[in-house]
Write a structure and sequence with these properties.
The chain has helices at about 35-50, 65-75, 95, 105-115, 165-175, 190-195, and strands spanning about 5-10, 15-20, 25, 55-60, 80-85, 120-125, 130-135, 145-150, 175-185, 200-205, 215-220. By secondary structure, the protein is α/β, with parallel strands linked by helices. A hairpin with a 5-residue loop joins strand 1 and strand 2.
Length: about 220
């Protein structure tokens, strides 16, 4: 990504995000990048689902790595996690250095996450294994046995191909019974699609100062 194609902007909680000029889209909420990562993904998904047993988490879109970082910090509370992330267009180290997330994330953790080799599992801490895959979610095979999904693609109007029915059917098939998916997008069409695929869907309160609602979808338990 060329420097003239984007801007790094400060969001309302003081953390930064990237704005892509061509499609007029941000990587995170302008109301608070860190707040969004903590509320929608760490708290509504990871902490909600995980009760201490080993967990496999799939993130759609690694982006800046902020979701991975806040999850790694939460894993230190005794919640072991294997964190898989699929990203078609990894960001350059130079861009990531301009984000200054080491102001809100421990610098040693931030460096370990971004220095981790792509396409292999790397032990970041005793409770957190990171596997960053340079992959095309729409074309490549998905890992299975997933307990939590962070669905953090660009908005449906910006990236409609990511929000089709087949996307959520594939995720449903990849998830364990009782697994959950969270996303910032609470549009009625997306909620109804998730329900039609087979998920139980909840509308939850959005992050402070941000979107009014978010979605949490649960794969139904298999019947005996």
């Amino acid at each position: 990504m060329k420097r003239e194609d984007f801007e790094i902007q400060i969001t309302d909680d003081g953390s930064t995000t990237i704005w892509l000029k061509e499609i007029d889209e941000h990587y995170h909420s302008v109301k608070g990048a860190l707040t969004e990562a903590n509320h929608i993904y760490r708290d509504a998904a990871f902490k909600f689902r995980h009760k201490g047993e080993p967990l496999r988490l799939l993130e759609i879109g690694f982006g800046t790595g902020l979701n991975a970082a806040v999850t790694a910090m939460a894993a230190e509370e005794g919640r072991p996690v294997h964190y898989l992330s699929l990203e078609k267009y990894p960001l350059d180290a130079e861009i990531l250095g301009e984000m200054h997330y080491d102001a809100v994330i421990p610098s040693d953790l931030w460096q370990a996450i971004h220095q981790a080799e792509w396409n292999r599992a790397v032990q970041i801490s005793s409770c957190f294994t990171l596997e960053k895959r340079c992959a095309d979610f729409l074309a490549d095979e998905l890992p299975h046995g997933i307990d939590v999904v962070y669905f953090d693609a660009f908005a449906p109007e910006k990236q409609p191909e990511m929000w089709g029915r087949r996307t959520f059917e594939r995720l449903y098939e990849a998830m364990n019974p009782g697994a959950i998916l969270t996303t910032y997008c609470a549009k009625g069409a997306i909620r109804r699609m998730l329900q039609d695929v087979g998920f139980k869907v909840e509308r939850l309160e959005g992050p402070p100062g941000g979107k009014r609602e978010i979605l949490r979808a649960t794969k139904k338990q298999e019947r005996c």
